[in-house]
Specification:
Layout (H helix, E strand, L loop, with lengths): L5 E5 L7 H13 L4 E8 H7 L3 H15 L6 E7 L13 E5 L10 H10 L5 E3 L8 E3 L1 H29 L5 E5 L9 H13 L6 E3 L16 H22 L6 E4 L6 H14 L3 E5 L2 H13 L1 H16 L1 H5 L16 H5 L3 H8 L10 H8 L2 H7 L1 H9 L1 H21 L2
Parallel strand pairs: 1-2, 1-10, 2-3, 3-4, 4-7, 7-8, 8-9, 9-10
Antiparallel strand pairs: 5-6
Helix pairs in contact: 1-3, 1-17, 4-5, 5-6, 6-7, 7-8, 8-17, 9-10, 9-13, 9-17
């Protein structure tokens, strides 16, 4: 199995929306755009939900069977390291190897010197097709970049080789993720990172660098759009150049994490992908859970009551819920409605505040972000929550499909 040029990470916290998610991708296929679905779920999410990767695999397989999907699809071990990779081995065939914590930590000096020497042919000025200005680096800069990223590259190699040894000839996709770190990588740094990963023999399918700006969970991009556009275009050019330069897989492409709801950068991304005839992996996170909440609120009655209850509990447990996500949320607590206010909201008021419609004056991005990280509360409700998902499947499925197709697939992948 291989990833298509375009692929979409579709997280499903409670493993109930596989058919709805896949129906959006089928709709795109019917319109002439092939997208590979990748069901992603991290170790942290599994621990909070109390689920296992086998649950994700079963849900994906069931959605594929129910819809008659015949193209490739994957189950992603999302943001794994050596401590938890074994948890995913039996059920996953896509591995997002997260090495952000190793960036900037010192590798053995002798190994830094060796790799820097092997890359010394890039000392000087040279060109990358698609980037107007020449790349100019000196010997010291090459060594500095190698020193900054070598330990992360070595860790990626260790994890990849462990997966390879355990999968016993099975095919799987490989992503290396460096996005959850404090500073973005420059296109020149990305070039040397790819050189190092290629040197370790990792057959990369996707690479997830950190871009400038804020990629917060479930809300639009925050930052300088022109700067992001320049970075993204240069990174696409770097990836295409590196494929030939280092004999990396021909289908290697960029991966954009926390890519859901980044409406303001979708059109620049679309234009650049068309310009370079390039692919991309867009990893969405948590939007399906929010569409479930919207569907429950729309249903009214006990569904709306449960949605209000979840928000009230999220306010009470604010510090606990936001702590794991502090680097990827931007909540101004003074902008959050009180529990008493929300208790008075009807279906329209709740969904208007939560649904990501920037033209709606009642949309509240702070409310949305808190509920985004509040899925732990629904998980603790167990079958009380899941029963309402089943009861309101039709309205929820409609929301899930429309969100993926209208707000994500169309602006990025379709003309």
């Amino acid at each position: 199995m291989k990833l298509k040029k375009y692929s979409l990470g579709i997280g499903d916290r409670f493993a109930h929306q596989g058919k709805a998610q896949l129906s959006a991708i089928i709709q795109a296929k019917e319109a002439g755009v092939d997208i590979t679905p990748v069901w992603n779920k991290s170790y942290r999410e599994h621990q909070i939900i109390g689920s296992k990767p086998a649950d994700t695999r079963r849900a994906a397989d069931a959605a594929v069977k129910a819809t008659g999907w015949r193209d490739p699809y994957f189950v992603d071990a999302d943001h794994i390291g050596m401590k938890n990779v074994d948890f995913f081995l039996d059920s996953s065939d896509f591995f997002t190897i997260d090495v952000a914590d190793f960036i900037g930590k010192p590798a053995a000096e002798s190994k830094v010197d060796t790799l820097a020497k092997q890359l010394s042919r890039y000392v000087g000025s040279w060109s990358i097709p698609g980037i107007d200005e020449k790349v100019t680096v000196n010997k010291e800069q090459v060594k500095k970049i190698v020193g900054k990223y070598l330990l992360a590259i070595e860790e990626a190699s260790t994890i990849y080789n462990h997966i390879l040894s355990q999968k016993q000839g099975e095919s799987f996709a490989v992503e290396v993720s460096m996005d959850e770190t404090s500073s973005s990588q420059t296109p020149v740094e990305l070039f040397f990172i790819l050189a190092g990963l290629a040197h370790r023999g990792i057959p990369l399918n996707t690479i997830a660098p950190k871009f400038s700006g804020e990629f917060n969970k479930g809300i639009d991009y925050i930052g300088n759009i022109d700067q992001f556009t320049r970075e993204f275009e240069q990174d696409v050019a770097v990836v295409q150049f590196a494929v030939g330069e280092f004999k990396l897989p021909a289908d290697l492409k960029l991966s954009v994490h926390s890519g859901s709801d980044k409406f303001s950068i979708y059109q620049p991304m679309h234009r650049i992908l068309k310009k370079f005839d390039a692919g991309v992996h867009l990893k969405t996170a948590g939007t399906t859970w929010l569409e479930e909440l919207i569907g429950l609120a729309e249903a009214g009655g006990e569904g709306l009551a449960l949605a209000r209850e979840i928000y009230k509990e999220a306010l009470n447990r604010y510090d606990e819920l936001v702590a794991p996500y502090l680097s990827v949320i931007h909540i101004i607590t003074g902008q959050l409605p009180t529990a008493k206010e929300v208790e008075k909201w009807d279906e329209e008021a709740f969904t208007s505040a939560l649904r990501h419609d920037q033209d709606n004056p009642y949309f509240n991005l702070h409310f949305r972000q808190l509920l985004h990280v509040g899925y732990k509360i629904a998980a603790a409700m167990g079958d009380r929550y899941l029963r309402l998902l089943r009861k309101n499947e039709n309205v929820i499925a409609k929301n899930v499909s429309e969100n993926i197709f209208e707000r994500h697939i169309k602006p990025i992948f379709m003309d």
